[in-house]
Amino acid sequence: MSDPPCAKTQLADVEVVVLAGGLGTRLAGVLQDTPKILAPVDGAPYIRFLLDWLARSGVQKVVFCLGHLSGKVETWLAENETGPLQVETVVEPEPAGTAGALRYAHPKLKGDAVLVMNGDSFVDGDLDAFLADFRANNALASLMCVEVPDVSRYGRVIVNGAGYIERFAEKDPGVTETGLINAGVYLFGKSLLDAIVGSPAESLEREVFATAAPGSIRAFPVQGAFHDIGTPESLAAAAAILAPYRAGPQRSARS
Q1: Domains of the chain
Q2: What would the pLDDT profile of 93-113 be if each residue is shown by its tens digit?
Q3: What is the pTM of this model?
Q4: What Rg, from alpha-carbon coordinates, does the chain have?
Q5: Beta-carbon neighbour count of residue 28 at 10 Å?
Q6: Alpha helices, DSSP H, located in 142-254
């Protein structure tokens, strides 16, 4: 059973979309016919950790955008409790990209803002504070960004003094300095969400964020832990890194 949510209230009215339709190519040799979001982390599927964390953050509704091996995720959700969370799924008939996935989720989204996150990474960021900053600045969109000691594996996010993104720098193995990267957690206002859904864009990163006017998207920097489970090495390291963020007793893979 999921842990009860904390006392935060802002997120109760914001739907969360989890992008979990990827093929998981880099993990195919490890997971075989298991979808990435069900990858085992410390004896339980990653989806269990994610749902518990969202519930503790005060979220009430989650929509999973599924594709590859979607039936296994839907079966797991049907057989396991999600506590206070209302959980729904949409299935892409073919890979549609991170922007395309939102078109399938759009009919289920009724609020004035939506929180979108990658289903294969975690960042220790305060979602409630993220939403408060987004609303206080009346932002069109906001990206949670995390500071990492070595940006060579990622593209960098360049932020101006007012807290808005000036540009995205491409991944460069030769740049090993400390910097901000996209943490894979986004807030969209209704107008931008509708524009994305009505466009032919497939990639949020390349066709929405990278082409946005400089200074039009807000950045929300955090300095907490960041970890993705997208490679065999990072999946193997996930249990130790995510352990401080788990709540309650050790869970079995079916609970």
Answers
A1: 10-143+183-213+227-245 (3.90.550.10)
A2: 888 899 999 999 999 999 899
A3: 0.90
A4: 17
A5: 13
A6: 190-197, 204, 232-242
